[in-house]
Design goal:
The structure is a single chain. By secondary structure, this protein is an alpha+beta fold. The chain has 2 domains: about 45 residues, N-terminal domain of TfIIb (Single Sheet), CATH 2.20.25.10; about 100 residues, GMP Synthetase, Chain A, domain 3. It contains 3 helices and 6 strands, in the order E-E-E-H-E-E-H-H-E. The strands form 2 sheets. The chain has a 3-stranded antiparallel β-sheet, with no helix packed on it. A 3-stranded mixed β-sheet has the order 4-5-6, with helices on one face. It starts with 8 loop residues before the first strand and ends with a strand.
Length: about 140
């Protein structure tokens, strides 16, 4: 594969420092969540950043999964993807992540939405990068 784009970010101060991209577009403070023994300060954390990236990438990848399923681009009207990233702890020093992705797909019935989520999971770069390393649950939000 050809490299089309490279993102670069540098973190300092671990979970209570900051992270900034080399182009200056991202510059955020980090705080450790209270649930992880931190002060629950106003900054973001690596799990939130990962959730944001995964949700955005997955939602974008959906457009490449429409045609093989016989769906039109209008199928994504009003849609969104929510990613929940779970920080896991096992034995001392043993940490991991799990992810739940929920598609909000109001233009599709439950079967179409499920098929789109599953197909997208095969093409999304984040899904491919985590395959075999991170448990990813796929869910469809009920249409209200």
């Amino acid at each position: 594969m050809d490299r089309l784009y490279t993102a670069e970010a540098t973190a300092t101060g671990a979970r209570t420092g900051e992270v900034a991209s080399s182009d200056g577009r991202l510059d955020v403070q980090l705080s450790r969540p209270a649930e992880m023994g931190g002060d629950g300060g106003p900054g973001t954390n690596p799990e939130q950043l990962f959730a944001a990236g995964f949700a955005a990438c997955f939602h974008s990848a959906m457009r490449f999964s429409l045609r093989p399923l016989g769906l039109s681009p209008e199928a994504l009207d009003g849609s969104s993807v929510t990613a929940q990233v779970h920080f896991l702890r096992g034995e001392p020093g043993d940490f991991g992540l799990a992810v739940d992705l929920t598609g909000h797909l109001p233009q599709l019935d439950a079967e179409q939405a499920r098929a789109l989520m599953e197909r997208t999971h095969t093409v999304c770069p984040y899904s491919r990068a985590t395959r075999g390393n991170v448990e990813v649950g796929l869910h469809v939000a009920p249409v209200s």
